[in-house]
Amino acid sequence: EVLLVESGGGSVQPGGSLRLSCVVSGFKFSDYAMKWVRQAPGKELEWVSGITTDDVGGIYAEGVKGRFTITRDNAKNTLYLQLNNLKSEDTGMYYCARGYTGPLSDARGQGTQVTVSS
């Protein structure tokens, strides 16, 4: 069974930081590019960041570039997303998913909520 389990979300003030994690099982993690996507209340699913199999660097949506960092640990089957300098518009449900770009995926977790509010 393919499982992706996110954690690390929470409520923070603007300017705060969070580190999201996603533990994967049921497929060979190191063989797949991975990504993070998010969905804000009332909005469509949005691609945030992607990383290749060998963790040589991530790609980012324009609105998060310079603030978010995607990494992975293939030995731990875990994907990460470091969120810094959070803004209210970053509020939403964050999902890890299989794939590199785009909001859709054939495998996605249940999500972890990020709320940025003063």
Architecture overview:
The chain is mainly β. The strands form 2 sheets. Strands 2-10-9-4-5-6 form a 6-stranded mixed sheet, with no helix packed on it. The protein has a 4-stranded antiparallel sheet with strand order 1-3-8-7, with no helix packed on it. 0% of the residues lie in helices and 47% in strands.
Tags for this entry?
118 residues, mainly beta, four-stranded antiparallel sheet, 47% strand
Number of strands: 10
- Spans where pLDDT lies below 50 across 5 or more residues: none
Helical stretch count? 0
Provide the β-strand percentage band: over 45%
Shape: globular
- Helix % is under 10%
- Kindly report the spatial arrangement of strands forming the biggest sheet: 2-10-9-4-5-6
| Biggest sheet statistics | 6 strands, mixed
Structural class of the helices, strands and pairings?
A: mainly beta
Ends apart, CA distance between termini: 40 Å
Rg over C-alpha atoms, rounded to the nearest angstrom: 13 Å
Q: Helix-strand pattern, N to C? A: EEEEEEEEEE
Mean pLDDT: 97
Topology:
Blueprint: E1 3-7, E2 10-12, E3 18-25, E4 34-39, E5 45-51, E6 58-60, E7 68-73, E8 78-83, E9 92-98, E10 112-116
Parallel strand pairs: 2-10
Antiparallel strand pairs: 1-3, 3-8, 4-5, 4-9, 5-6, 7-8, 9-10
